[in-house]
């Protein structure tokens, strides 16, 4: 459990560090590819959210909250697309922006569920709000 919390903390700090590096260079060019963002940030954190059940301790709830914060940070990065060929153009598409915003909104629902320690709301946020835009985006963009 502590290892997962540390990994999520590293992911959030990495995203914050990237944001700080953007501010230092006055450049808003993506530094990571979409695949790097997905594999390094989104996949591990969404797996944490989707795997959450029978949460008993404050630390377990905090782990889920941190995962949702990481999803929001990754979504913020994905607004730029990625550094791979054509990824910035992809991020300008309406569907991409919509899926990304739905993912961020779902992560905010996860945070609300963790704040109230409501497992039913957490399950609904993960399964009904977070999963659909992720799957839809993969269907449309993963093959590109």
Any overview of this molecule?
- With 144 residues, the protein is mainly α.
- It has one domain (2-141): Four Helix Bundle (Hemerythrin (Met), subunit A).
- The protein has six helices and no strands.
- The protein is elongated and about 45 Å long.
- The model has no long low-confidence stretch (mean pLDDT 89).
Q: Which characteristics define this entry?
A:
mainly alpha; 6 helices; 144 residues; 78% helix; Four Helix Bundle (Hemerythrin (Met), subunit A)
Number of helices: 6
Which structural class matches the secondary elements? mainly alpha
Helix content: over 70%
For the biggest sheet, the summary is:
none
CATH uppermost class = Mainly Alpha
CATH architecture: Up-down Bundle
Order of helices and strands: HHHHHH
**Mass-distribution shape:** elongated
pLDDT averaged residue by residue: 89
* CATH topology heading: Four Helix Bundle (Hemerythrin (Met), subunit A)
Strand-residue proportion: under 5%
Could you give the count of β-strands? 0
